[in-house]
């Protein structure tokens, strides 16, 4: 862990253009699994929160492209489970109950 000293840099001014990258921008993880899981009624992503605050996001095209590629990869991954059966074993990750399952591969 690294602790940084805020020397008048935060909060960021909303009139300065900012770019967001990565899977967490629109699909922000709200907790974890197991004891780190969080049950809530609504989750606001980093992207959504900054937009609602009036920030100027310059990477919207990248975020949309990433989301499109993510959904395409997810649809390909779902095809590995005909009829919605999750017992298909290909062995990249552990699913609920410890069974092996496939993960989507991003290009």
Q: Please indicate the percent range of residues in DSSP E strands (runs of 2 or more).
A: under 5%
Q: Number of helix segments?
A: 2
Shape, principal axes of CA atoms:
extended
Average pLDDT figure: 78
Helix % is 25-40%
Major sheet: order of its strands? 1-2
Largest sheet: 2 strands, antiparallel
Ends apart, CA distance between termini: 31 Å
- The gyration radius over C-alpha positions equals 18 Å
Report a brief summary of the structure.
The chain has helices at residues 46-53, 60-78; strands at residues 93-94, 100-101.
Can you offer a commentary on this structure?
This protein has 107 residues and is mainly alpha-helical. 25% of the residues lie in helices and 4% in strands. The protein has two helices and two strands. The protein has helices spanning 46-53, 60-78; strands at 93-94, 100-101. Strands 1-2 form a two-stranded antiparallel sheet. It is extended and about 55 Å long. The protein starts with 45 loop residues before the first helix and ends in a 6-residue tail after the last strand. Residues 87-92 have low confidence and may be disordered.
What is the topology?
Layout: H1 46-53, H2 60-78, E1 93-94, E2 100-101
Antiparallel strand pairs: 1-2
């Amino acid at each position: 862990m690294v602790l940084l000293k805020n020397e008048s840099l935060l909060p960021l001014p909303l009139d300065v253009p900012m770019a967001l990258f990565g899977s967490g921008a629109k699909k922000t993880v709200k907790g974890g699994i197991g004891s780190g899981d969080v049950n809530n009624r609504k989750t606001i992503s980093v992207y959504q929160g900054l937009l609602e605050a009036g920030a100027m996001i310059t990477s919207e095209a990248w975020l949309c492209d990433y989301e499109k590629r993510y959904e395409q990869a997810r649809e390909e991954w779902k095809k590995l489970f005909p009829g919605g059966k999750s017992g298909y074993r290909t062995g990249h990750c552990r699913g609920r109950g410890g069974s092996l399952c496939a993960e989507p591969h991003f290009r």
